[in-house]
Amino acid sequence: MFRSATQTHRRAFLRAAGISIALPILESLPIQLPGAAIALGKERTIPTPSVDGSPMRMVCVGNSLGFHPDAFFPESTGSNYRFSPILEPLAGMKKEMTIFSGLDHGLKGGHFVVHSFLSGVTSTDAKAMPDGNISLDQRAAETIAGQTRFPSLTVGSEDGIHGGSRMCWTRSGVRIPPITGPKELFQTLFVQESHAQQAEKLKRLELGSSILDSVLGDAHDLERRLGKKDQQKLEEYFNSVRDVEKKIQLRNQWVKVPKPSPAMKAPERDLGLVNDLPLLYDLIAIALQTDSTRIATMEIAGSFNSREFGYDEGYHGLSHHGHRPEKIEAVVKMGRYQVEQFAAFLQKLKSIETDQGNLLDSTMVMFGSGMGNANSHTNTNLPVILAGGGFRHGEHKAYENTGIRRMPLCNLYVSMLQRFGIETDRFGTSTGTLTGLELS
After folding, report:
1. Are the C-beta atoms of residues 417 and 120 closer than 8 Å to each other?
2. Residue 388, beta-bridge partner list
3. What is 50-192+262-420's CATH number, 2.10.240, 3.40.720, 3.30.200, 1.10.8?
C-alpha cells in the first residue's frame, strides 16, 4: 500500500563505503527513512588533574547485593566511632577513610535499580536527564582520553541475577561490558600484540576513520539545504561524529606503544570471583602504578560463590535472610571477606611510593553498593566508604535521607569529580557538593 510523506518515518541515511549512518530527525527533509542516530557524548580536553603534581586517580568498587546494615554501619558518628563487625578489617586505615550513612539516590526498585549506583539515574529514566545515565567513572574518563592507554578499566562478571555487572554506563546509555577475570585483565594490561595483530587493528581503525570522513563530507553538502533550526541540530550530530573520530585517533596512538612488563606471572586460569578477588585488586593496583589507566571499577555481583565459604544456598538467597540468624551470619561473613580484600588493596596503594607521597594520596577509592538492604529490597541509606584522594578522613559522617534536607549520593560524586579536576557543579541527581567533605 502506498504511504504518504507524513506516514513515512522521518529519518534519513548518509551512506559511505556501503555503510549507512542515520541522521537525526530533520524538519527540512519531508521524507526520511527508518534509522538510528548516533548519540555519543561530547568530550572535553583539560589539563591533567593532579594533587601536588601527581595525577589524580579514581577506583570504584560496588557490591550488587549490599551488606547487612546492622553489621556494616558504626553505631556512633564523628571521629570516635567504633568499627562494626563487617568493617573491622579497615581499623588500621581509619585515618585514610570516611564512612558515610544516609546517602542514596532516592530510588525504589530493589535489584532493578542497583545498576544506578554510580550514576544516580536508572536506564529507564536516562532519556529525561541532560547527561543520560552516564556513570561516575565514565564521566571522569571523558576528560582524560588519550592520556593513558585505557581511559578506564571495568572489571566484573557476566553472571548474576540480572545479567552480571551493570554498574558502568556511557553517556548514550550503553552498558560497559566488564573484563571478567584476572587472566583476561592480565592479558589486557600486559600482553603485547604481535606485529600482524597491530597491523590488523590499525587497518580497522583507519577504515572506521575513512568512513566517518566520507559521511561528514556528504552531511556538509546536505547542510546547505537545511533551515537554521535543522542546521543547529545537524551541527550537534557533527559533534557526535567528531567524538567517534577522536576516539579512533586516541586508540590509534596506543597501538604501537609497548605495554609495561609486570612483576608477576600470568594467571593460568580464573578461580572464581571469591578466590580471584585478591589478584584482581593487585592487577588494578599495578594498572594505576604503571599509569596504564587512572580510572577503574570492579563490581562484585551474584557470581560471588557462597559455596566457597561452606554454604549450600546461593549468595542472592542468603541476602534475603528473613532475619534468620544463620543466614545473617553467612551474609556478614561474606561481606567481611570483601572488606578484608578492600582493606588489603588500600594498604597496597598506601605502600606504593610516588614522587609526591604514596599512591593512595592521589587515588580516590570508593566502596559500597546500590542496595541498602537486600532482605527488604530497599535502596535507601546505601553503604558507602571513601578512602584516599587527599580528603580529610577519619570520621563516620551521617546525613539525613528523608524530607527536603535529604543529601543525594550524587553530591559526593560532584565532589569527587571536582577533585578529579573537572569543572562541574552537577552530576546525575545532585543538588551541589557534599557538605562536610573537605580536603586535608
Report:
1. no
2. 364
3. 3.40.720
